[in-house]
Amino acid sequence: KNSGKIIFKFYPSEDQLKIAFKLGEVDEIRGLIDPAPFHTWPKVKLEKKVDRGKLVGIFLNTEKPLLSDKTFRQSLAYAINKDSLSQERAISPISINSWAYNPQVKPYNYDPQKAKNGIKDNPEITLLASPALIATAEKVAEDWKQIGIKTTVQFPSTIPDDYQALLVIFDIPEDPDQYSIWHSTQKATNITKYANPRIDKLLEDGRIETNLEERRKIYLDFQRFLLEDSPAIFLYYPTTYTIKR
């Protein structure tokens, strides 16, 4: 704060933001995912909240030979013990706060036996993750290893097109329209390379339907069929922290 003004500064990573706080360049941090080391500082005020406008999930590159197999994608989902992540579960790409949210989708609750049924030939997978999600990435890798998948975790500064599995924080659009994320024509933004004619049709219909109840039914179906296909694994709504001096 300076003469009644509030100045916002933006940093490319949480690590650089934390350094800026330590150096006194900023007096308050908002939206922090990992509060360490400030949670141990006696003269820092920590506030936390669950952000249901974002979700943490693993996007799977469905063009990769291993991940083009729906059964294998479902095995990856069943293998993760989501309760051990100690966060509020997210089961759909649409927020629980949305009027279009479908609570009846397949939740992929932890089931290592079911997960093992879809595993053959000692598969190997590389999980790329945002540096803010190190703890989650390590737990996911451990769960995948338990069912026989050799898993390597990497934290790249930029995301290559050629990835297999990508653990990120996803900003959920306020409107349930997710055409840009899942429609087969959206090459630049459909990062899972997902292509499904039924999903395409639902996304097209959802954009032009003006009756709210009819539109809601379209998005309920969209979530149900998308989750059955499992091009992504939805884990939790992240807890974010505000840090103040």
Topology:
Layout: H1 14-22, E1 28-32, E2 45-50, E3 54-60, H2 70-79, E4 88-89, H3 112-117, E5 124-129, H4 134-146, E6 150-154, E7 165-171, H5 179-182, H6 197-208, H7 212-229, E8 232-237, E9 239-244
Parallel strand pairs: 5-6, 5-7
Antiparallel strand pairs: 1-9, 2-9, 3-7, 3-8, 4-8
What do these coordinates show?
The chain has helices spanning 14-22, 70-79, 112-117, 134-146, 179-182, 197-208, 212-229; strands at 28-32, 45-50, 54-60, 88-89, 124-129, 150-154, 165-171, 232-237, 239-244. The mean pLDDT is 94. It is α+β, with helices and mostly antiparallel strands and 245 residues long. β5, α4 (134-146) and β6 form a beta-alpha-beta unit.
Number of strands: 9
In one word, what is the shape?
globular
List SSEs in N-to-C order. Answer: HEEEHEHEHEEHHHEE
Radius of gyration: 20 Å
Structural class: alpha+beta
Main sheet overview: 6 strands, mixed
Range of helix content: 25-40%
Range of strand content: 15-25%
Quaternary organization: single chain
Key words describing this protein structure:
single chain; 245 residues; alpha+beta; 6-stranded mixed beta sheet; 3-stranded antiparallel beta sheet; 7 helices; 9 strands; 20% strand; globular
